[in-house]
């Protein structure tokens, strides 16, 4: 499945790169995250990337206990993909794997939240930290007993993370690939005909 996902996402990204070329001038746009979904048989793979500001309200290196606590809470929420991206109950999907990480924070301890590692204190000045951009990244694997029932996605993600404004979603199935922009004010995606 991983090889399939990597190959297919490579193809999707190649096609999407042309369409997104003008937007890539600022690839790290606040309020905009990326969600890639590949569905093959009963397996669903998701790759998710979003700026730190969308999730915790800041992108600087976490230096205070409060900032680190917000990151830990966010990682815990991001580890539950079916609470963020709600699939129809009829599809009978379960999450089999969820790996979440914070990149660009120089906190390797933030990698793989499920491990329960503790965080080191960093005492860099705030000006240096402001220059840094952080991103939350997640890889999810789901198994669905009735994948043909995946007729849509409700994005509870926007309820859980009020700073998030938009998700660029790319979906790949055996019926083809499609790209969507899902916005906070319309957090539903109709996938009828894509399965």
What's the gist of this structure?
This protein is of the alpha+beta class and 195 residues long. It has six helices and nine strands, in the order H-E-E-H-H-H-E-E-H-E-E-H-E-E-E. The strands form two sheets. It has a six-stranded mixed sheet with strand order 4-5-2-1-7-8, sandwiched between helices.
What does this structure look like?
The protein is built from six helices and nine strands, in the order αββαααββαββαβββ. The chain starts with a helix and ends in a 5-residue tail after the last strand. The strands form two sheets. Strands 4-5-2-1-7-8 form a six-stranded mixed β-sheet, sandwiched between helices. It has a three-stranded antiparallel β-sheet with strand order 3-6-9. It has helices at residues 2-20, 52-56, 65-78, 81-84, 126-130, 157-160, and strands spanning 32-40, 43-51, 85-86, 93-103, 135-144, 152-155, 166-173, 176-183, 188-190. With 195 residues, the chain is an alpha+beta fold. It is elongated and about 45 Å long. β1 (32-40) and β2 form a beta hairpin.
Report the average pLDDT across residues: 80
Structural class: alpha+beta
Strand content: 25-35%
How far apart are the first and last residues' alpha carbons, in Å?
18 Å
Which regions have little confidence, pLDDT < 50, spanning 5+ residues?
Answer: 11-27, 107-130
